[in-house]
Amino acid sequence: MINRVGINTQTLPTQQKKTQNVQKEEKIGRVEEIKKKIQNGEYKIDINKTARALAKSLL
To answer: How far is 59 from 50, CA to CA, in rounded Å?
Structure first.
């Protein structure tokens, strides 16, 4: 079924699932990259960025 803006609403859930799968794969890849850096002692934490994010979440 095509709605007013021209989107096929029947394929929308399928497209959303594909997008979610891609996002999940990207996240898994990022986590694996961080794990490797931690194991190699190459992962550096930006304490200023962490502090800003923490302060922002508390406000």
So the answer is: 15
